[in-house]
């Protein structure tokens, strides 16, 4: 081949290579990011590290988040990312890294998301901006933890009523007859059985009736069953209730017995444990053992139990909320022990109102169990004028006082009185009952002692048929410590039928599990007597409950005179922040205002100007030192005019004056004026403060409201004392 030809070929090859180079270059594989929903929890994804894409508007879902920076695995991934500032409410990509569990998860408020504190959890995760590092490829699909594996149940031979009804072809369960050999069944996933729920059939009682009808007769949802009793049916004081009502909770007289097998099979199912022993209502028969497993929501952890029908071996944990499984006061799965009158009642001076459920949904047998439970409680707490006093309200459509606090002064007298209570029937209007006790029950006429904390224990079968949040808030702000004992509460599939979602969290103080006691079965109720008594008699927790932390308007009146100095002034601001940190801050909870004074006065910010804790603490840090003289009397008058004149009627008015020297003006007249307006005044003197002026400023008794420290650096020591005194005073005079 000639030289020109070779040259032409070589040039053509070079041109072809240069043109093809960009297309031939290896491209970086594109990262596929799987999308998740707002409620997806990290513990539900079985990967150590992964990337996901969150949708928009997750903040509005208010999915739970536990922790700050490092979150418990039961937290929502998307809301944790918003809380951490990784994404905004418009959504985005998030990288999740798993890690071991922690002992303490601190709650905080950030970017519009409230995270809750948590004592401990088995595993954690962190979130970061969803921009993968160079060369790192995350899984393009997510591997989920199975929420509930299939379990095999072996059924022992049992004699049961035979049925002529052929089972539907869609079920694997064969109805045994009297001579049936042992058969093995495959457990049906729980979620499928709830598809047969109808509107108006949402209560646990109807679910139980459906279970009996379907399991005993093998009927499908389209088969006919026995109709509910009409108004004329001989049931005690039963009101006429429309069958179409979403609150229909009527209790048939025959009450869940074996011969109820032909009840309406369209009612949804629920796993009600049945006892193997002789039943209180006289029905006989042995419940065959059934293997049941319960899993912690959104995790791979579960508990298994073999149900023998003995209420003392029922595991109380499965129906607890995710938080309360590891809360401060979890139910203790210990053996049932004889009741003791001396366990937790030492110095248990409380006024207790029990709100017992008298609705038709509870039935006669469970109503009797409820009365037996109250008898047990009355014996354990050892009722007496020097200790706890106990009254009972029964609620249905309307509440009624069975007996007041002062009616019985001993446990011996209470026992027969409780046994004689007759079920009143109706709906489960808990909200109306809470309003009733707030307005009518804790009064001097009914035996309220004033110096004893007021406690209301609400027993609820399933869930209320009215809203409880507003009534509970007003009761708490009146100083009533509310406990909720929920028996056989709604499961995940039934919560859509509850009138007010998360009604327990909205009703009780805080969310640390102390004021809520979920119980999985009525037959396990009496096992929880000691646990409940321990809580209601824990006066330290009652004093420091949310009731004293959410109903205040607190004004700090701070000395900014020249003798304080810049460094010491920052120490005073840190003290103010430490006190403020302990309160629940919002427009409906505690509000804080601050005045700085010298010869003149300056309103740093007013009540309600900062309605969350983070904003309030930042505002305190930004206060600038003024410098000047000391006119404490004029500052007190200024606080009355600029702050307390705008205080809400339902708020307790508290003034905390901090000064380091004698005032140039009179403090007695201004202090007396604010005392007469109902302001509770605390005075804190430092270094050269005048003791007589501190006593004039403080509300009586002086020793509880006036404090003196020799130097600024010792201010922090009085934070717990002031918080304790505010709470103690609130609970010792709850009706003021």
Automatic annotation (TrEMBL):
Superkingdom: Eukaryota
Low complexity: compositionally biased ranges: 154-184
Keyword set includes Disulfide bond: yes
GO cellular component terms, semicolon-separated: extracellular region
Entries under InterPro entries matching the protein: ECM_Assembly_Org, LCCL, LCCL_sf, VWF_A, vWFA_dom_sf
Signal sequence segment: 1-20
Domain VWFA: 351-536, 553-722
Protein name, per record: Cochlin
Organism: Cyprinus carpio carpio
């Amino acid at each position: 081949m000639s030289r020109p030809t070779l040259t032409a070929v070589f040039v053509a090859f070079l041109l072809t290579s240069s043109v093809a180079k960009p297309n031939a270059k290896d491209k970086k594989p594109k990262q596929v990011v799987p999308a998740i929903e707002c409620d997806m929890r990290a513990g539900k994804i079985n990967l150590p590290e992964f990337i996901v894409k969150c949708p928009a508007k997750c903040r509005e879902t208010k999915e739970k988040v536990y922790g700050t920076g490092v979150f418990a695995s039961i937290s929502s991934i998307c809301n944790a990312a918003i809380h951490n500032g990784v994404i905004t409410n418009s959504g985005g990509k998030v990288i999740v890294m798993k890690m071991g569990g922690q002992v303490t998860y601190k709650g905080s408020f950030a970017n519009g998301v409230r995270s809750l504190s948590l004592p401990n959890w088995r595993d954690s995760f962190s979130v970061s901006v969803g921009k993968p590092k160079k060369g790192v490829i995350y899984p393009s699909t997510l591997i989920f933890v199975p929420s509930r594996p299939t379990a095999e149940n072996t059924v022992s031979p049992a004699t049961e009523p035979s049925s002529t009804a052929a089972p539907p072809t869609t079920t694997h369960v064969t109805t045994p007859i009297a001579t049936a050999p042992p058969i093995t069944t495959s457990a049906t996933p729980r979620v499928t059985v709830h598809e047969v729920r109808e509107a108006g059939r949402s209560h646990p009682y109807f679910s139980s009736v459906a279970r009996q009808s379907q399991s005993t007769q093998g009927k499908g949802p389209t088969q006919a069953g026995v109709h509910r009793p009409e108004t004329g049916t001989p049931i005690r004081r039963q009101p006429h209730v429309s069958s179409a009502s979403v609150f229909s909770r009527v209790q048939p007289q025959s009450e869940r017995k074996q011969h109820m097998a032909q009840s309406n099979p369209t009612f949804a199912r629920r796993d009600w444990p049945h006892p193997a022993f002789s039943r209180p209502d006289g029905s006989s028969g042995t419940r065959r053992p059934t293997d049941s497993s319960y899993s912690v929501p959104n995790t791979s952890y579960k508990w298994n139990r073999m149900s023998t029908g003995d209420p003392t071996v029922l595991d109380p944990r499965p129906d607890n909320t995710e938080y309360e499984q590891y809360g401060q006061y979890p139910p203790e799965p210990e053996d049932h022990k004889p009741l003791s009158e001396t366990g937790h009642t030492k110095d248990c001076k409380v006024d207790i109102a029990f709100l017992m459920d008298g609705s038709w949904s509870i039935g006669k047998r469970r109503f009797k169990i409820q009365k037996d439970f109250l008898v047990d409680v009355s014996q354990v707490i050892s009722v007496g004028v020097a200790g706890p006093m106990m009254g009972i309200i029964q609620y249905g459509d309307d509440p009624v006082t069975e007996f007041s606090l002062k009616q019985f002064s001993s446990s011996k007298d209470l026992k027969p009185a409780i046994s004689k209570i007759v079920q009143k029937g109706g709906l489960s209007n808990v909200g109306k009952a809470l309003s009733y006790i707030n307005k009518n029950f804790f009064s001097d006429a009914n035996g309220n002692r004033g110096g004893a904390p007021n406690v209301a224990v609400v027993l609820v079968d399933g869930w209320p048929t009215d809203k409880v949040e507003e009534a509970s808030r007003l009761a708490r702000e009146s100083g009533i410590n509310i406990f909720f004992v929920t028996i056989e509460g709604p499961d995940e599939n039934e919560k859509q039928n509850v009138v007010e979602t998360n009604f327990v969290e909205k009703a009780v103080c805080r969310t640390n599990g102390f004021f809520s006691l979920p119980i999985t079965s009525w037959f396990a109720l009496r096992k929880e007597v000691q646990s409940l008594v321990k809580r209601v008699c824990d006066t330290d927790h009652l004093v420091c409950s949310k009731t004293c932390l959410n109903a205040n308007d607190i004004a700090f009146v701070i000395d900014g005179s020249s003798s304080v100095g810049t460094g010491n002034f920052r120490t005073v601001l840190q003290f103010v922040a430490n006190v403020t940190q302990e309160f629940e801050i919002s427009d409906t909870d505690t509000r804080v205002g601050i005045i700085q004074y010298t010869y003149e006065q300056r309103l740093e910010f007013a009540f309600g100007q900062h309605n969350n804790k983070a904003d309030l603490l930042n505002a305190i840090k930004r206060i600038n030192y003024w410098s000047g003289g000391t006119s404490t009397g004029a500052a007190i008058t200024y606080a009355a005019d600029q702050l307390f004149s705008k205080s809400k009627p339902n708020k307790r008015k508290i003034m905390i004056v901090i000064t380091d020297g004698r005032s140039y003006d009179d403090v007695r007249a201004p202090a007396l004026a604010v005392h007469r307006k109902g302001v509770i005044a605390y005075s804190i003197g430092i270094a050269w403060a005048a003791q007589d002026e501190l006593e004039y400023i403080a509300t009586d008794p002086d020793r509880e409201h006036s404090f003196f420290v020799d130097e600024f650096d010792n201010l922090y020591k009085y934070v717990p004392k002031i918080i304790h005194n505010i709470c103690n005073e609130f609970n010792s005079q709850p009706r003021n």
